[in-house]
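Whether sequence alone determines local backbone shape is best considered at the level of individual chains. The sequence in question and its structure tokens are set out directly beneath this paragraph.

***
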Amino acid sequence: MNDNSIFDNSYIKSFMVHIDELRQRLINVLIIIIIASVISFLFNDFLITLFLKPVGKVIFLKPAEAFVTRVKISIYASIFITLPYILYQFWMFVLPALFEKEVRYLKTIITGSYFLFIIGSLFAFMVVLPYTMGFLKQFGNEFIEPSISFGSYISFSCSFILGFGLLFQLPVIIFFLVKLKLASIDFFTKNRKYAIVLIFIVSAILTPPDALSQILLALPIMVLYEASILICKLLRMNHV
């Protein structure tokens, strides 16, 4: 047996070990999500009450819609609750392959990304979503009475909340681009005015067509943009 064969065999064994570990961690995540979904289903009425505050009563149009939507709410809630555990499993999987400096960076990024996602989701749920639904319901009149479907409302609101959580990842994206030298801090500083225009365009797409709702989304994103530039400058000054 030559050296290349030995190397290939050891590489394959190492690869299979990583695949087995990944499979086990995915199974662990799936089990936790299932358990959390069952627990969330037991508190379904409480979750539904929270979700329906912006709209009040809703209807269901298909025989299974109410049940299926309750299951969806339980799954959404379980993923939201178990997100720290999911990130932990990801962290433990990649940790052995990282150097000490990379560990420090990634730990900061994952922690920051998690909290930004939570803040963005809560901001959408508690501030923007109620205002958005109130605005949209104003288009009814004596001939057009709003009858909102349970399933469609939950899908809309969850997509809305997820969108905000992802938009609040802007500082993480900027940090990555600067760290990987795909863009410089000066690039983001010089193109600030274009970034502001882009932020308002995205806000206009994601929110109702009125100034207040667009500002409600655009302002925190602009603050995050400026904070990202400031943090990158501070890190550069400290040679981190």
User: Anything to note?
Assistant: The first helix runs from residue 3 to 42. The radius of gyration is 23 Å. The mean pLDDT is 83.
